[in-house]
């Protein structure tokens, strides 16, 4: 026992000596610091409703309530919760708090028909300095302002206004040298042959409705026809898609498309022949104009575009690439007018077999299916873009018109009705589609251009689609025209009529005008009102003979 005490005493002495030798004392262990616990998002309501993180048709002053699992540090809100518009510009907002500061109430002031994001970042802090676990983004799209943007006028006054203002694109905004229509309002010297044909028909309307005088209309037609006759390049009598409006040289549409375009030529001839029939005065000026137009039409070697006497017409030919594009004009699309004009030519006609085989595919262009409750005689599923029912029928009167393949009044009415019914049904749930806002056709879209249709629907409505369908769907077309003018007029109505297109679902409004979209608006409103262009074009003796030869029957023949 004594030895054990001695051993313990020696141990303590040794320990004391060792500590004294080092000259230090043990460092106390600090307990770990526990960081503030993070917190989480709990709930969201916009104007009292929860719809996930996407909200459309929102008013200009929405109330956004976001709830969290902890009380918020108000000092962190200004940098951690940001509202931005589509261009990235910050939007100011006011805040209040509820539920012991666990809920923030945000009240911004927004613009109508605009897209916004509310970004809540992980920089948001709680009162105990914790951070939000996960960021969140709320998407807001504001709705339209339903107030009228213009004073109400009668339907006839509104139709007059739309025709007159849209005509200005072609008359006031025509190329200064050639008089031809610019492809679009930003095209500089690039003019469009097909769009000019539509514009010529619009100018006939302008003269007939006293928007411009007969002398003014005649002078513009003389300028255009003189340029086409003396300056513009042609290939076997056919014109290219685009021309330089000053020199008359080809402006290539694409690398291989730098020569003749038979469809654009057809649209041009459709307009010229209509003008020829209208300017029927006995004076020397109008007599000469008619003769020059007839010469331009007779110069087109329609039969040569059979590419070696095949029983089909070809769309393009290039002086450097020949038939490289190799695109047949086959139905159903906008190309009927080419076959009608080719069959009607007194100098370079085509036989009926070219129409039957090349255009109609001996019946293969028939459809017969029912879409949205409407049977479609011809063409692709659900009808395709609406310009199929417009471009050829600016001049060709479909009323009671029939041949072996279809009744063309039924065809165009069905096509327009299907397009309307599709937009009302709105299978893609786009905001802004409905009975007053419909019409899918080729137009500008944000960042590009596309041929919209029920099978290629990107959310963009083009005014020309519904308005140019007025002869087929008068009630629905007038409702759309009024909506676009009265409700969207602050964004869609400009110096040359309606801008090209709009998207209310992902808000965007074109600031562009396209000749091929503007022209049909003037022309088809007039065909609905008076049948003027139909009567003029169908009065051409060549057309009567040619269409009868293709097997067409109807009251206009």
TrEMBL record:
It comes from the Bacteria. PROSITE patterns: PROKAR_LIPOPROTEIN (PS51257). Residues 1-23 form the signal peptide. The keyword Nucleus does not apply. InterPro entries: Glycoamylase-like_cons_dom, SbsA_Ig. Residues 54-142 form the SbsA Ig-like domain. Pfam families: Big_5 (PF13205), Glycoamylase (PF10091). Residues 328-541 form the Glycoamylase-like domain. Keywords: Signal. This is Ig-like domain-containing protein.
